[in-house]
Amino acid sequence: MIDEIHVSNLALIHEATLAPCAGLTVLTGETGAGKTALLSALKLLMGERADASQVREGEEGAVAEGRFFEGPRDLTGFTVSRRVGSDGRSRVRIDGSIASVRELSQRMGPLLDLCGQHEHQRLLDAASHVEMVDAWGAATIAPALKAYRDALSRARDAARELARVDEAARAQGSRVDDARFALERISEVNPQEGEYEQLEESLPRAEHAEALAETANEAQEALSGEGGALDALNGAIAGLSRMGAVDAKLATFADTLTSAAITLEDAASDLRRYRDEADFDPAELARAQERMGALRGLIRSFGPGMEDVFARRDEAAELLALVDDGEGRVRRAQEAVDAAERELADAARTLTRARNAQAPRFCREVGRQMARLEMGRAELVWDSRVLPRASWTEMGPTASELLYRSGAGLTPRPLRRIASGGELSRVMLASKVVLGEADGVDTLVFDEVDAGVGGSVARSLAQVLADLARTHQVIVVTHVAQVAVMAERQYVVSKSGDELPETSLHEVEGEERVREIARMLSGDDSDVSLAHAEQLLREAGRL
């Protein structure tokens, strides 16, 4: 939903701010006043291509910026800014951060529909027709669509597995030879999990066992041997203890050194045990070194780590098993594909039936709304054709779209072939009213929806727009007073100046709004026009 839009130096606009309400907002004004420039600002914020000609004459650049909310639960919203330089270069920021035009389009596309200008008319995209029917009939279509997509995913997985197994079963030449060589080489060494790491830790100790034992023995002798540190320390403790009777402080020192002596005795005992346990076995050392050499040889061939060696062993074993049992594995994989395809075909039929049941009902509801807009006997027709299996997509197994028939007995045609932008806008309007809250787009902007209408059609159009505004934010550029009076908020677009015209935008209320409605009715503000305008506003509950 649009919270506020600010435009500067775009076409004839110097500065303009639009803050539409959550319901129906209208833009009115004389023809040529500059309403198109405001629509251009919306298009820029939707990611449309920028053009240097959009920059107001004499200015360095044009800026369109706005604040938007993503649904009713969004309490913080986000900001978008689009600057177009006089050199034609465009710069985009989303929440203050630099972004691409593509990112802008992806962010804004789901939030806003610009109806009546073919550049942003969702109704021209057949994929959107399926989305509308799915949204309207979600209670029955959504479960069927999920089941279809799950089955399609499983069928694709099964097909990939079949391709993999078939390729492996047919693998010949150097690939099989390499796998057989790798498996034989690794199996000959037969490495165990964690063995290499254990040897890395223990082998250096085995290689230096004599030196380690000798070092431990020398340290133990230095501590507890004859004339060692403990002898001297014990002599010191005895002397301090003897004189501790004279000075208690020396007794404290004696206690401290006694603790140290105990620690040294423990260390000497541990060193003696280490020395005695040191085991130098030349044969065992040679075996460990040989084993380490074999493991390092595997790493050089299949590394860089032992985990790569194990992975290569498993990969080679699997490939050779596939080759050896190729026919059996291919047969089982094909059976899995056949089962998945049968499941998918069932899900596809269920989805197609669900859509084909709901779509005509949706078309009838849209037809009722089109009748309210006095579009004669025009109607929508659901066209659905089953696609070849290779063409099935996440959207379904059919090519489906809504066709337009302007009268009974006429051939339905694609909506993109409707020549009138106003007529297409009214079809979109009718569809959106039927969708109601099921429609995922929050904001709808109508430009040509009132083209060529008047009298009772204008009143019907106004009422339909008011109905739509109960579930959407609706912005309408209109020349029809009956539509304008239904709006909760009305802005007037006006142009002033001769040499360098300037478009301005301001909200009208009270007497000012009465005068604008009178102008729309008869082009003047005579007493009769003013009275008629006031009557229409009161009937609409806007006065």
Which key terms come to mind for this protein?
543 residues; 6-stranded mixed sheet; elongated; alpha/beta
Which helices and strands appear, and what pairs or packs with what?
Elements: E1 2-10, E2 13-18, E3 24-28, H1 35-45, E4 61-68, E5 78-85, E6 90-94, E7 97-99, H2 101-108, E8 112-115, H3 126-136, H4 138-169, H5 174-189, H6 195-207, H7 209-224, H8 229-243, H9 248-277, H10 282-302, H11 306-324, H12 326-372, E9 379-386, E10 398-405, E11 413-414, H13 421-435, E12 443-446, H14 455-468, E13 473-477, H15 481-484, E14 489-496, E15 502-508, H16 510-522, H17 527-539
Parallel strand pairs: 3-13, 3-14, 8-12, 12-13
Antiparallel strand pairs: 1-2, 1-4, 4-5, 5-6, 6-7, 9-10, 10-11, 14-15
Radius of gyration: 42 Å
Instruction: Measure the end-to-end span.
Output: 26 Å
Oligomer: single chain
Summing up helix and strand content along with how strands pair, one would put the structural category as alpha/beta
Overall geometric form = elongated
Share in helix: 40-55%
What is the structure about, briefly put?
The protein has 543 residues and is α/β, with parallel strands linked by helices. Helix content is 55%, strand content 17%. α6 packs across α10.
Task: Provide a descriptive summary of the structure in words.
It contains 17 helices and 15 strands. The protein has 543 residues and is of the alpha/beta class. The strands form three sheets. A six-stranded antiparallel sheet has the order 2-1-4-5-6-7. A hairpin with a 4-residue loop joins strand 5 (78-85) and strand 6. Helix 16 packs across helix 17 (527-539). The model has no long low-confidence stretch (mean pLDDT 86).
